[in-house]
Every structure is written in C-alpha cells, then in structure tokens.
Amino acid sequence: MKKFLMNYLQVPRSYHYLLRLLVIYFAIQSLIRLLFVIENPPGFIDIVGVFFYGFLWDTFAWLFLSLPLLILSAFVPAKFIIRFDRSLAGKAVTFFLSCILIFVGFCEFNFWKEFHSRFNFIAVDYLIYTNEVLANIRESFPMDWILSGVSLLALGFTFFAARIRFPEGDKLLLRKGVSLTLFGVLSPLLFLYGIGPSLEIHEEDFHEDQLSRNGWVEFVRAFRSNKIDYKSFYSVISDQKAESLVASSKVPFSGINHPYKKKPNVVLIVVESLGAKFIGPLGGQKETTPFLNKLADESEFYENFYSTGTRTVRGLEAINLSLPPTPGYSVVKRPNHKNLYSLGNTFRSNGYDPIFMYGGRGFFDNMNSFFTGNGFSVIDQPDFSSKETTFKNAWGVCDEDLFAKAIQVMDKRDIDETKPTVLFLLTTSNHRPFTYPSGKIDIPSGESRVGAVKYTDYAIGKFINESLKKDWAKDTLFVILADHSTEGRGRFDLEMTDFHIPMWIYSPGNIQPKRVKRLLSQIDLLPSLIHLLGLKDSSPFFGQSFYNENWTEERAFIGNYQYVGFYKDNLLTTLGPNRKVRRFTYDPKTHRQLDSLESKNADEAISYYQHASSLLTGQGYNLN
Known about the structure:
Elements: H1 2-8, H2 16-39, H3 44-65, H4 67-73, H5 78-86, H6 88-115, H7 121-128, H8 130-140, H9 143-162, H10 177-194, H11 206-212, H12 215-224, H13 230-233, H14 239-249, E1 265-271, H15 290-295, E2 300-306, H16 312-321, H17 343-349, E3 353-358, H18 367-372, E4 377-379, E5 392-393, E6 396-397, H19 399-416, E7 421-426, H20 449-467, E8 476-482, E9 500-506, E10 514-516, E11 520-521, H21 525-533, E12 556-559, E13 564-568, E14 571-576, E15 580-587, E16 592-595, H22 602-617
Parallel strand pairs: 1-7, 1-8, 2-10, 2-11, 3-4, 3-7
Antiparallel strand pairs: 2-9, 5-6, 8-9, 12-13, 13-14, 14-15, 15-16
C-alpha cells in the first residue's frame, strides 16, 4: 500500500490548491446532508445508502463546479499556481468560495424546511424574481447574524484547508496534468448533457432520494427540465383512446337556473396558502380563521375540495383554464399562454368585464402577461397610490389595502359601468415574512404563518362586511378559495393531504347555505360558474360543473412539477418520469395513504394528462 501511494498518488504541487477546495467542498456538502438526515432521519441501512449515493452525486457536482479551475490549470504555469496557493490572495479566494458554498447550503436547508425537497423548479422560478426574493430574505431572516456565521465558518474551513498536507511529487494516478484537465472538462459536459427529466426520481421513497441528491445538480436539472414533453417521459395510450376517454367523461349540464334578476358580478378571492389545516370545519385550527369558520354556515361550503398543485401559478392555471396540471411549468409561465380558452375570455364573450387585482407586482410569476393575454385588465401594486397603501412588505401591499381598493373599484363600476364585473383578487399577506399591520389581531406581525392566516381571515371578514353594505353586493356572487395549501412533500410521490383546501360560495338571499361533501377539483370551478350563471360556452374545458345533477363520476387532479395524480374511488394513481405508474389508497376521513396493488383507473388517469398535454402542444387550447 505504501509503495502504491508513493508511486501513484503523489500529487504535483500545482494541484494542491484545487485539492484544498475539493476537501472544503466535500466537507460542506457532507455537513448539509447530515443536517437533512437529522431533519428527516431514515433507518440505519438507509443512512448508509444516502451517504454513499450522496458521495457519488457530490462527485458529479464537483466535476461541474470545478470546470473553470480545471480549464485554467491547463494554461496557467505551475509556478504561478504554487505561489498563489501560498499567498494571501489564494487564501482570500478560498474564503470567498467557502462563503458561497456555505451560504448556498444555508439557503438549501431553509428551502428543504419549506418544500421538503432539494432545489427544484421553485428555486429556479425564485431566482428569476431577484428583487422579491432578496427583499423576502432580508425581511424573514436576521441576515447580519447569518452572514457573520457564514464568514466565521468560511474562516474555519480556510484555516483548516491551509494546514492540510498532501504527498508531494510529480506523479498522479492520471500521470499527466493534461489528461486530468481533459477528464475534468469532458466529464461535467457529458454529465450536464445527461441530467434531464429522465433522471427526475429513482427511489421509491422521495425523501431518501432527495437526501442523497446534490443541490447544485438538482438546480441545473430543474433549470433544464422546466418544460417536460409528456409523451417522451410518461406512460401513454393511443391519442384516439385518450381523446375518447376524456370526451366520454363530460356530462351535459342539467338543472339549476341562477337566482339573480340580472347578470351578477363575480368577486373571486384566491387566498395565498390557505390549507385545510387552518379551517375549523375541515378539522383544522378553530381559532385561526374565525370569520371563515363562521362563513361555512352561511354559504355553500365545500368540504372535499382539492387544489391541483403546490404553487400559486398552478392554482391560477386551474381556476382560469379548467386544465389538469400537466408536467413541468404551469401554463401561466409557458411561452404560449395567451388567447386561450379561459375564465377571462369566456366571461368577456358573455358581456362581462374581467379585472385581475393583485397587491404585489404582477410581473412576478408572469401573472400580468397571462391575465392581460386572456381577457383581463390588471390592477397591481404600481396602481396603488401612497394614500391607498397603509402597509407593505416584500410581496406587496397588505390584504386590507387590496380589499379597500377592490371596494373602490366596484363602487365606481356600479356608478359608471353597465357591464357586470368579474373581479379576480389574489391575496399576499399569508406569505413569508408573514408581516402585516399591527393591532389588527392578537398575534404579533412577523411571528408565524398562523398569524398571517389570521390576519388574512380578519381582512376578508372586513371586506365582506363592508361589501354587504353596498348596493352592488345584492347582485354579486362571492367565491373564496385557496390557491394551494402550505404542506410540502411527504413519503409518497404525491400525498392527497397536501392538496386539501377549502372553498366558499356566498351570496346572501341568492345562494342557500349548505355543506357540499362531493369530491371536487379546482378545475371544476369555472364550468360550475358557467353552469350556475347560464353563460354560453363552447370550450374544451376539462372540469365538470358541481351543480350538474347528471354528473356522478367524482374525481380530483393533483400534481407537482414531476408527478401528476388522478384520484377517484379512494384510489390515487400517480404518473411520473420514466413512465412510472403507482397507485395508493387514500381515506379522506383518516388521511391515511398506503401503497396499493389495485389495477384500475390507469388509462383514465393517463387520458386526461396526455390529452391535455397534446392540446397545449398542438395549440388546441387556443381560441384561434
């Protein structure tokens, strides 16, 4: 062994600097993985696998990250590199690179705590909106302390690396530096080319798989895989069969005539991150949402209602387009997102004036472009005057300011306009850093999400009570629902509890209060409004009207960027990359989800997602 080390593992002095960085990199990646394991501990045998496969992923990532240094080593004289390694400048660069690795690790750990995943599409999306994200970080974390801690750790790693001694000589396992450089250049290029959607998930247990992954690699993979071609990576059936199955599931409307004397206004309130766990009548917290809990007894309250995704853009997609959550980007953020069959275009063609109002900057998540491209006019943060803004944070004005502006708009339209209005409101206050005006509720601002939810409940209650004093409210349908819940990834590809959200349909004197227990999806809201209000429609919407007396085939659609799911008859069928199909039984009463060997529903699940993907790809969802 000693002879082998002396003959083959002698390291040229010019490579010592690169090896010091390598040691620091692996130490930091191992520390990050250890923190993840502590946060979500697997079994002992699984831990061995996590660190073994983690080492392999970290090695791949190192080949990619060290590419610039490896290229430089081919052209910079060895003497210069040796002097640089010994100099203060070399140690300063080591310190700077250590700071970057540690800070990225800190970000990844907090991302894990929020989304229970390594960096994914969400991280890619956030990177695009730098102003909002940086402001959010500044308002959510004590950055002075964090950066000081990062600097101290980086100093420790720099000092430790400087004291490492390697066997010196002019030989290496790959005997020529040029060979090592070529290996270092070609390997990451091949690796970068290979990390695509086909490598999304390998392990049955999502957490175990993510524990072993490398955040740098996952970020690059997510960046390259934002748009996934369904037929290339998911289970398929013939296009004719898929289209036939979807068509056969659609049931013609029957029953119901709307109770209004004229076309009513529609005020649609989409609440940020309002999961079922915050709603008392759904078995959640009883003190967090007192107004909405009370409203459940005064409205049509939907107890078995599911969001299609875990991001706001997925909720906006489902509500506006009545479309299952196809893999990859939400349609809201895809290039071909305008002039689609949609809520805005449907209501506009029926004599309505649709308005989208958001307390933040509608540039975020491409919302302004999506809404203006589909029949809406837009009011967002730049349209709020200083007098109309009593409080704002990184994400926009507080919900009270949003609702106060909404009442102004509806008052003015009631006087000046002859067309009925669809007012689509998107809240912001229930979002990190969870800050809101003080003195409104009994939980201090910025303390927790529970406080933000309670403030939003307060703001909605204030808005509804003030609206009911207005003449226009007599002919207005109020719809309140969440864009998604706050739950993250669990043990399975998709977990039904992560998508359970509430919905209220409220119009005193027009809509009779009742509890609705049938299974419903966000994509069913638009067809239901069309049915309830008697609108004309010839769209290819995938949803069903929950007012339709003839519709009995209840089902829900859920998904994230990688997996899509179809839930029917207590059986969840998930479709994933590598043409993976899995099934789970789910009991909505106990919230228990288990692996299943049941074989039904696969073709039906595939048909919806395959046909939806085909329509989007072939522009079959475009109006012309």
